[in-house]
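FAQ: What does the model actually see?

It sees only this:
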Amino acid sequence: MKINFVIPCLLGLERLIADEMKELGAENVTAENARVLFSADEYFLARANICSRYAERIQILVGSFEALSFEELFQGTKALPWEEWIGAYDAFPVKGYSINSALFSVSDCQSIIKKAVVERLKSKYNISWFEETGPTYQIQFSIMKNKVSLLIDTSGAGLHKRGYRLEAGGAPIKETLAASFCNLARLREYHTLYDPMCGSGTILIEGAMFANNIAPGVNRHFSAERWRNIPEKVWNEERERAKSLELSESRFVAYGSDIDSVSLEIAKANAKRAGVDKFITFEKRDLKDFRPKSEKGTVICNPPYGERLLDLKAAEEIYKIMGQKFIPKKGWGYYIISPSEDFEIIFGRKADKRRKLYNGMIKCRLYMYFK
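And it is asked to produce this:
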């Protein structure tokens, strides 16, 4: 059975996710603003959840329609085949948002959608009361410019929650974004990766997983694992498939440093939980004392942004030091994310390439130096 899926994603990662879904075997892949659409069978949702590095979550698109009134919202929702997924005892909470639409009250939309789904399921199961004691089928709605999209979430906790980061240092970067840096830096299993401001180690951990083809979701669970629609053996087979694709031999090495001892201890614990601690060496070191340990290398880092005035000067000082330490040299690449419009001026060189990305709600650029 072919199903339509939607992946909500961080702005700037649409193309990476579209390419990733194609590689995993999805069809009719389309990248739109902050989301990717594709079609696949119902078993593909297991593969996508386990293997996607950049997606925020995997959602089933139950249907879309236009609604300018609550009656249109009710009838449009009721017309959709909810019984194909939701059983008589399953839980189906509703949440969502509305932007630039006639139906702007989220709470009213929420209750109307819930009522419509109940009415649909009443007619299919011939029952008047739903206990909702079974597995959860989280219904998500989005209403944008009067177009309603109704989805069922398959992931549960967001896919950036790999399970290894129980603690984080200050201003942690999202795992999905860190993984995208590794892709854009063309990181490989024979590379040496550096992060001289590593914090809780997210970039280094994602780098080790990326370079060694370790699936980010192989050790966590997803809400759809409890669904009757997807047999347990499918999840087991997809986990085994993912593990079989991991590199058995690797020359990958990573070095992380930071001036904060607490962050380094957190980073070490996170790397161990992720199963990649054997690839990464951590040490306490100031950025100004950055000394490469290899002839060639890739530096990826997320320096402090300095959103407050006093911090801004400190951030600019860090940019200057990076410009002095990250020397143009054959076999070296430097990838730095920053929201500063003046980054290149302060760093001292124009980037060879720039990429617009969002770190949370902060508009940033990934400045890439590789020539």
